[in-house]
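Query structure, 288 C-alpha cells:
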C-alpha cells in the first residue's frame, strides 16, 4: 500500500518533515535529549561529526566515537514531541521514501534517552543516575495506538485504585524498557527506577503557583504507590512515550535520568551541568 503525501510528509529535498533529515543521515544507535543545546554537549565528545541538521527544536548531529556511528537528536519537551520523533525515526529506516511503501525487511534502532528528572523518594540521591526499568504514562499518547498488548494492566489497575485516579484524566499506561539495553547501561552507578511521565511540568507534577490543582495530594499518592517490589521513583515528561512507541515499532529503548531534584526533600542540585555531563560521558562509554 502506497502512503499518501498527507500521511508520509516529505520536504522538497525528500527529507522527513519535522526532523529535516534523510535516511542516510542517522545511525542505528540514537541518543535523544530534550534540550536542543544538549545535542552539542553530547557530540563534542565524538571523534568526528559528519552531519549537522536542524529544524525547529529538532537538532541532529551524527558522527563517530571509537569507530561507532552515533546520532544525537533533540526532541523538545513532552510526549507530543516524542510522537513526532519516534515515528519519523522509524520512517527513516523502515519506509521507502521513493515508493512510499513499508519495507519488508525492518531495521531495529537502539534509542537511548539522556534526560533530567526529579526524584520523589527520599532515598534517591541528588546527582545520581537513574535507569527507568518501567514507565507509567500519565499522558494519553499510547491510548491513540493499538497498544494494549504491550501494557501492564495489573499495575495500571492497582495505580488507578491507589490514587483514586480521576475519570476526567487519561487512563494511565505502564510500559517497560528494552532488557537488552538495560543490561548494557545498568551498573553500580545507576539506580533502577519506575518513572512517571507527566503531561506537563506544573499542575501535572503537583506544582502550585497561581492555579489550584485537581488533586493536591497527587505526589504523595505517587510516592506511596507500591506494586509488589515496584515503587514510582521519579517524574519527567518523555520516557513512557519513548518506551511505548519503540516497543510497538520494534525498536530498543532505554531512558537514563540525571536526578537534579528531589521533590520529597525539596533539594535541587548545585552542580546540574556537571551531573548531566557525567551522565553523557557514562552513556557514551557504555555505548562504545
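Result returned for the query:
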Amino acid at each position: 500500500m502506497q502512503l499518501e503525501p498527507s500521511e508520509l510528509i516529505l520536504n522538497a529535498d525528500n527529507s522527513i518533515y519535522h526532523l529535516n533529515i534523510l535516511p542516510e543521515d542517522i545511525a542505528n544507535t540514537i541518543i535523544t535529549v530534550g534540550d536542543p543545546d544538549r545535542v552539542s554537549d553530547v557530540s563534542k565528545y565524538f571523534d568526528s561529526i559528519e552531519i549537522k541538521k536542524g529544524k525547529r527544536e529538532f537538532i541532529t548531529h551524527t558522527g563517530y566515537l571509537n569507530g561507532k556511528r552515533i546520532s544525537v537528536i533533540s526532541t523538545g519537551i513532552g510526549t507530543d514531541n516524542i510522537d513526532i520523533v519516534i515515528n519519523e525515526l522509524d520512517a527513516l529506516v523502515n519506509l521507502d521514501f521513493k515508493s512510499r511503501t513499508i519495507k519488508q525487511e525492518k531495521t531495529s534502532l537502539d534509542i537511548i534517552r539522556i534526560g533530567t528528572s526529579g526524584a520523589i523518594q527520599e532515598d534517591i540521591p541528588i546527582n545520581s543516575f537513574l535507569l527507568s526499568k518501567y514507565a507509567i504514562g500519565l499522558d494519553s499518547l499510547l491510548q491513540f495506538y493499538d497498544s494494549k498488548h504491550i501494557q501492564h494492566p495489573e499495575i495500571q489497575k492497582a495505580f488507578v485504585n491507589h490514587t483514586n485516579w480521576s475519570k476526567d484524566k487519561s487512563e494511565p499506561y505502564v510500559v517497560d524498557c528494552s532488557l537488552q539495553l538495560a543490561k548494557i547501561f545498568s551498573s553500580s552507578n545507576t539506580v533502577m527506577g519506575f518513572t512517571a511521565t507527566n503531561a506537563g511540568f506544573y499542575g501535572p507534577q503537583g506544582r502550585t503557583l497561581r492555579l489550584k490543582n485537581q488533586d493536591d495530594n497527587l505526589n504523595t499518592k505517587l510516592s506511596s504507590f507500591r506494586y509488589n517490589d515496584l515503587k514510582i521513583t521519579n517524574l519527567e515528561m518523555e520516557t513512557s512515550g519513548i518506551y511505548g512507541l519503540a516497543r510497538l515499532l520494534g525498536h530498543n529503548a532505554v531512558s537514563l535520568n540525571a536526578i537534579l531534584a528531589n521533590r520529597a526533600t525539596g533539594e535541587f542540585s548545585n552542580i546540574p551541568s556537571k551531573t548531566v555531563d557525567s551522565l553523557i560521558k557514562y552513556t557514551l562509554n557504555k555505548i562504545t
